From TrEMBL:
Name of the protein in its database record: D-inositol 3-phosphate glycosyltransferase
Residues of the Glycosyltransferase subfamily 4-like N-terminal domain: 110-201
Superkingdom, natural source: Bacteria
Native organism: Cellulomonas gelida
GO annotation, biological process: carbohydrate derivative biosynthetic process
Length: 580
């Protein structure tokens, strides 16, 4: 229910949080921009009286809408429109959004802080209007940054946006990294803050599904969201499971194509299009389904998948940048499977079948608890509120418990990465000790110690290099001038190649096994001596492979009360961190 209010003035927003967004739920599209509403609600504890400014991009031939100020779902919303042709270039879209906001520039400047969703068009438009008159924090959700950056005009505008904003947040770690790499001079002010999800709003299932016959899709009906691939995959599944059904919730320009394709493939009677569904009704859809299948070409976060998992519904999604990060724990716990982006259907069928076969090993309750920690309204709201106030972001408490993961063998590395990943997500400090640790793409809150240089500096390795490579190559090389004068330089080259082959054979047959025995103890002594302060006081130490055990035990010896285990899953990490 919208209640009419007087015209907006600077006095109305003085000292308040103002949220500027191109998406927000409306009567026509109650689910559009729901994540913006939930993000704003998550901030109510820190900013109890926010104002949402919704600049809706509308087609030129759409019915005109006058600017209005009202209360929508408990939040004050100022709604205005920016009419334009759907094919308008992105840089021009930003200019038209700025023109729509221009009469309200004094209002925006009066805010205590401006939280602007998406860098283009709204971030650029707001910064062009208010400059440095008030603090502007931009939250990036866009999955089209590469396209935007490929056009010089829009790239220049985006560059101005990230440089002019006080802070930039992104809903996915890969988006954060992409922006940091594109604009390294401002990388320190780009951080990851995910979309908040009110996990408690979605009731857990009383019983897990016995089979995955009832497929569900929730989202916009666009080819880019994979809806046509979805129908083709469902048709292949339906050929094997004639009682299977597919419910499609959402609206969009490709709704008719979805229906036509279902009829063409002979599954029209099994495919139900229910149109757009109000957020309050989505939970019931999750309860009545067996699996959510979402095959989007690109996602920065994947809100629908998170909501489904909060309802303890298995998920099959594409391995987009957002999906890979958001669903990593769900994959570990057999509640999600990722398939490649593309047109194939066999991989989708295989993913659904695998989830069905592994349902006995799935841990939906653990995944739901993990979602509450990572994406819950309270934790995300606290982090975002700190960012809006200008407080440090992504800096763990120096008094937080410490988790150390050792990976001195390649087989131990995936488990060690999961341990430190789960630790920092729970507010702990984390250290990863591994070969090539500096080359890994990890949360920047994880401190790393690369043991490769330390290993190479061990006496056994230096002696091996000197005896097998250094001295022989120097002696052979010394004969090159004489060989060159005698026209026998090829003999020197052949000798060097033979020396290299012999060296490699020795290292494989003798050196490798020898180092496997010697290195663990030697590395343990050197690492604990050189990195003692970094790992002192650990609450949890994992060693992964037998080679890492001596180092883990030495670290634990300097950390009274530390839990030392070979591997630790999410449940163990959570328990140790909470206890500490």
């Amino acid at each position: 229910m919208v209640q009419a209010r007087p015209a907006l003035t600077p006095a109305d927003v003085d000292g308040r949080l103002v949220v500027v967004t191109p998406w927000y739920p409306t009567a026509e599209n109650p689910y559009g921009g729901a994540f913006v509403r939930e993000t704003t609600r998550a901030l109510l504890g820190a900013f109890p009286d926010p104002l949402v400014v919704h600049v809706e991009v509308r087609a030129l031939d759409a019915a005109p809408v006058e600017p209005s100020l009202g209360v929508v779902d408990g939040l004050e919303v100022f709604h205005l429109t920016a009419p334009m042709d759907p094919m308008t270039p992105r840089h021009r879209v930003a200019e038209l959004v700025r023109d729509a906001l221009a009469p309200y520039a004094p209002v925006l400047a009066a805010a205590a802080v401006l939280h602007v969703h998406v860098g283009m068009p709204t971030g650029w438009a707001v910064l062009d209007l208010v400059g440095d008159r008030t603090r502007v924090v931009v939250s990036e959700h866009a999955s089209y940054l590469n396209k935007l950056w490929s056009v010089p005009q829009s790239e220049a505008m985006y560059a101005r946006t990230v440089r002019g904003a006080a802070l930039v947040t992104a809903v996915g770690e890969d988006t954060t990294r992409a922006v940091q790499q594109r604009y390294p001079e401002v990388a320190d002010k780009v951080h990851t803050v995910p979309n908040p999800v009110d996990v408690e709003r979605f009731a857990p299932r009383e019983l897990p599904p016995t089979n995955l016959h009832r497929w569900l899709y929730v989202g916009n009906l666009l080819e880019a969201k994979g809806v046509l691939r979805l129908v083709r995959a469902f048709a292949a599944w339906h050929a094997q499971r004639p009682t299977a059904t597919l419910t499609v919730a959402g609206g969009g320009v490709d709704a008719d194509r979805v229906r036509a394709l279902a009829d063409e493939l002979g599954v029209g009677a099994a495919v139900r299009l229910v149109g757009r569904v109000a957020p309050a009704q989505v939970g019931a859809l999750y309860q009545d389904a067996d699996v959510l299948v979402h095959l989007s070409v690109s996602e920065t976060f994947g809100l629908t998948a998170v909501e489904a998992l909060a309802s303890e519904l298995p998920v099959v999604a594409t391995a987009t940048r957002g999906g890979t990060r958001t669903l990593d724990v769900a994959q570990d716990e057999d509640m999600a499977r990722l398939v490649p982006v593309g047109d194939g259907v066999e991989d989708v069928i295989a993913a659904v079948r695998e989830l069905e076969e592994r349902r006995a090993s799935a841990r939906p309750g653990l995944v739901r608890a993990d979602l509450a920690v990572r994406f819950g309204t309270r934790p995300v709201g606290d982090v975002l509120a700190a960012a809006l106030r200008g407080e440090p972001v992504d800096e763990p408490d120096p008094d937080a418990p410490l988790v150390v993961a050792v990976a001195l063998h390649g087989s131990a590395l995936p488990g060690a990465v999961r341990v430190v990943r789960d630790a920092v997500r729970r507010g702990a400090r984390a250290v990863l000790i591994a070969d090539g640790a500096d080359r890994l793409e990890l949360d920047r809150r994880v401190q790393r110690l690369d043991v490769a240089p330390i290993r190479a500096g061990l006496l056994s390795h230096r002696l091996e290099g000197w005896v097998l490579d250094g001295v022989p190559r120097a002696l052979i090389g010394a004969t090159r001038p004489l060989a060159r004068r005698a026209g026998r330089e090829r003999v020197v080259d052949a000798a060097l190649q033979r020396q290299q082959r012999l060296s490699t054979r020795w290292k494989t047959a003798v050196g490798g096994p020898g180092h496997a025995r010697i290195d663990p103890g030697a590395l343990a002594r050197v690492v604990t001596r050189e990195a003692g302060p970094l790992v002192a006081g650990a609450a949890l130490v994992t060693w992964g492979h037998v080679r890492g055990r001596p180092l883990a035990e030495r670290i634990a010896a300097g950390s009274p009360g530390a839990v030392v285990v070979q591997d630790a899953d999410l449940e163990v990490v959570s328990r140790v961190v909470q206890r500490a």
